[in-house]
């Protein structure tokens, strides 16, 4: 879920003007990058950004292409973008983005986007897991949540059925975070999210990491009920 009509970034942290970091007494403070559109070649035959296309590569590696514009590229839900999360993400980092900076439209961090980018059928779980480890080593906080979805990195990994990302995130999370709840899913846990979305691989991985199968969500439903449905359908 995103708030597509957002014109200004959230007020927490610094903001960027014209893609440049504003003056701040604390340069380590995360910033919210203003909303921009994805850059495209003038004569492009595609409606999406393709990092494998030479003309798109010229834009991707152009230092004048801003962090905000590259975040806009990451919002494109196509294999060409998601399978290149590491390439695009590292270009964002090269431009001065910090590990916990946020996209002004979705309020997502690079780690959030990376957990989505491992989705089966559209992303590359191995590439995403490797880049997630890189981000965490740089200080990315797996417990940060998007203000629009209230989802943290684990919730995104569970929702998109990426056990490789679940393992990476839980390895660096606080004890008990495997059962962290999300208000957008009736205050269910990552296990409830994955089970209700028929993500069996994520369900198995979360159980192996100690997720509580009898956790009761706000509507009274228990995770094991969703799990039973998931297993039957699978």
Keywords:
234 residues; mainly alpha; Serine Threonine Protein Phosphatase 5, Tetratricopeptide repeat; four-stranded mixed beta sheet; 5% strand; disordered N terminus; Ankyrin_rpt; Cul2-RING_E3_ligase_SR
Write a compact overview of the structure shown.
InterPro entries: Ankyrin_rpt (IPR002110), Ankyrin_rpt-contain_sf (IPR036770), Cul2-RING_E3_ligase_SR (IPR051616). This protein has 11 helices and 4 strands.
Low-confidence stretches: 1-13, 17-27
CATH T-level fold name of the largest domain: Serine Threonine Protein Phosphatase 5, Tetratricopeptide repeat
What CATH architecture label of the largest domain applies? Alpha Horseshoe
DSSP helix count? Answer: 11
Largest sheet, spatial ordering of strands: 2-1-3-4
The top level CATH class name of the largest domain: Mainly Alpha
CATH superfamily of the largest domain, please? Ankyrin repeat-containing domain
Question: How many distinct beta strands?
Answer: 4
Average pLDDT = 85
Shape: elongated
Major sheet description: 4 strands, mixed
In whole angstroms, how far apart are the ends? 26 Å
Rg from Cα: 18 Å
Order of secondary-structure elements: EEEHHHHEHHHHHHH
Structural class: mainly alpha
Oligomer: single chain
Strand residue percentage: under 5%
InterPro entries: Ankyrin_rpt, Ankyrin_rpt-contain_sf, Cul2-RING_E3_ligase_SR
Region (Disordered): 1-28
Pfam family, one: Ank_2
């Amino acid at each position: 879920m995103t708030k597509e009509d957002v014109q200004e970034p959230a007020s927490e942290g610094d903001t960027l003007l014209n893609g440049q970091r504003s003056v701040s007494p604390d340069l380590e403070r995360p910033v919210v990058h203003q909303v921009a559109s994805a850059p495209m070649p003038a004569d492009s035959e595609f409606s999406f950004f393709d990092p494998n296309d030479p003309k798109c590569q010229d834009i991707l590696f152009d230092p004048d292409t801003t962090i905000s514009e590259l975040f806009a590229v990451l919002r494109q839900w196509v294999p060409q973008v998601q399978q290149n999360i590491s390439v695009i993400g590292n270009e964002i980092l090269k431009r001065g983005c910090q590990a916990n900076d946020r996209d002004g439209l979705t309020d997502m961090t690079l780690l959030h986007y990376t957990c989505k980018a491992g989705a089966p059928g559209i992303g590359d779980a191995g590439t995403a897991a490797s880049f997630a480890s890189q981000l965490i080593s740089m200080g990315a906080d797996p417990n940060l949540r998007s203000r629009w979805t209230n989802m943290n990195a684990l919730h995104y990994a569970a929702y998109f059925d990426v056990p490789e990302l679940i393992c990476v995130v839980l390895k660096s999370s606080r004890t008990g975070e495997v059962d962290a709840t999300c208000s957008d899913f009736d205050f269910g846990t990552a296990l409830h999210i994955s089970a209700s979305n028929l993500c069996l691989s994520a369900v198995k991985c979360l159980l192996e990491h100690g997720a509580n199968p009898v956790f009761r969500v706000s509507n009274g439903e228990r995770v094991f009920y969703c799990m039973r449905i998931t297993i039957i359908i699978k």
